[in-house]
Amino acid sequence: MQKTELYMREICDDDVADVIKLWEHCGLLRPWNDPQTDIAFCRQKPNSTLLVARMPEEEKLQASIMVGHDGHRGWIYYLAIAPAHQGKGLGKQMMQAAENWLLDQGVWKAQLMVRYGNEAVKAFYNKLGYEQSQCMVLERWLDASKRGDA
């Protein structure tokens, strides 16, 4: 497979609506995660960023990835590749960019979450060397109104 080159950069104000549309097309939106709030929160913190990318011949954004760290572990969220461009190596390039960003921050471990039953996504990450952790993720809603099922 020939590598498709991407123009990648950090998100800017003019990208927000397009990123949200991309996330919607990729099925990433959940009622309890307001995308506007998630993007704004990411952008205001020095320990996170949201990278966007387009292909050279296209103006429209084709990919995004959110990455951040807690000072110890890196976390990756919202990897989105436009459905028409999936399977062309763009996801791998976006993951490499996120991992490089973490390394530049002095973080040497990356983690991400995959919903149970999402075997295709799990297989993608397995191909990149990600393994199921020996830790269980526990959660508690500190503000139950944000849960989205009320």
SSE order and pairing:
Blueprint: E1 7-10, H1 16-25, H2 35-44, E2 48-54, E3 63-69, E4 74-81, H3 90-104, E5 110-112, H4 119-127
Parallel strand pairs: 4-5
Antiparallel strand pairs: 1-2, 2-3, 3-4
Q: What is the count of β-strands?
A: 5
Distance between the termini: 46 Å
H/E order of the elements?
EHHEEEHEH
Largest sheet: 5 strands, mixed
Q: Count of helical segments?
A: 4
Which strand-content bin applies to the residues? 15-25%
Helix content: 25-40%
Ranges where pLDDT stays below 50 over 5 or more residues in a row are none
CATH H-level superfamily: Gcn5-related N-acetyltransferase (GNAT)
Radius of gyration: 15 Å
Q: Which term fits the overall shape?
A: globular
Count up the domains. Answer: 1
Q: How would you write the strand order of the largest sheet? A: 1-2-3-4-5
CATH-derived topology: Aminopeptidase
Mean pLDDT: 92
Q: What is the CATH C-level name?
A: Alpha Beta
Helix/strand class: alpha+beta
Short overview:
By secondary structure, this protein is of the alpha+beta class.
Give a description of the structure:
The protein has 150 residues and is an alpha+beta fold. It has helices at 16-25, 35-44, 90-104, 119-127, and strands at 7-10, 48-54, 63-69, 74-81, 110-112. A hairpin with an 8-residue loop joins strand 2 and strand 3 (63-69). The radius of gyration is 15 Å and the shape is globular. The mean pLDDT is 92.
Considering the chains and any ligands shown, give keywords for the structure.
alpha+beta; 150 residues; 4 helices; Aminopeptidase; 5 strands
